[in-house]
Amino acid sequence: MEGTDNGQTPIVKIRPEDASGSLRASLSSLAQNEGPQEVIIEAEPVKKKTVRGLHLPVRAFKSRENRDPNNVNEELKVQFDDIINEPEGFYTPKFSWHLSNELYGFGRACCYSVTTLFCGIPFSFIWGVIFAFLACLNVWVFAPCKRGHLINLSCISGFWATCVSALCDPFYRSIGLVFSNLRVRTEKFVV
Fold it and tell me: In Å, how far from its chain's centre is CA 49?
């Protein structure tokens, strides 16, 4: 017997005699220990798994997302007014200007869609493989090499610091002592 609790969660009621196999044995032992005549199992409704965005109409999908949140392709945001401009004294009739604007947008969108359909899918796979390879190289080659160089350079940096302090510190201390005895006095004369 099935029902819903407040219209939200479906409730499934099972009697031990309606169950089969191991579920019947479990329900029978539960009924003997606790004594209920029916067991209520509450379950969340089954949610259909949908691919993000594919259930939306095309216009809603395109207008819903910012596909360049980091403005990586800022220079590609080219509208009709960014390309076609008329100088002073030359004016296209309003209808022709509007139609040109619409055809520019239509041609750009169609060409980009077709090109993306044929090139975008293979290139996305290729770029995925390339970045996976680079990530693998970074994890398994570059990061260990960098760590090894840091270990080696820490020994060299200690040696270098000792050499510099042994060779240069006496010279700079002497220069410092020479200039420490200089006294500079400034006076302001008002004329």
Answer: 22
9-21: average pLDDT: 53
Task: Give the amino acid at 126.
Answer: I
- The token duo for 187 is 């006076």
Say what the pLDDT of residue 46 is.
Answer: 53
DSSP 31-67: HHHH--SSEEEE-PPPPPP--TTTTS-HHHHHHH--S
Task: Say what the alpha-carbon torsion angle 65, 71, 73, 74 is, to the nearest 10 degrees.
Answer: 110
Q: Which two structure tokens, joined as six digits, stand for 73?
A: 């392709």
* DSSP category for residue 7: T
Compute CA distances 80 → 11, 65, 98, 106, 190, whole Å. Answer: 59, 22, 10, 11, 66
How many C-alpha atoms does 106 have within 13 Å on its Cβ side? 6
What was the pLDDT predicted at 32? 62
- The total of other beta-carbon atoms located within 10 Å of residue 16's CB is 19
What are the residue boundaries of the structural domains of the chain, listed by start? 2-42, 72-165
Query: Residue 4 — φ and ψ, nearest 5°?
Result: -130, 150
Residues 53-84 have pLDDT tens digits of 566 677 776 666 677 777 888 877 788 888 88
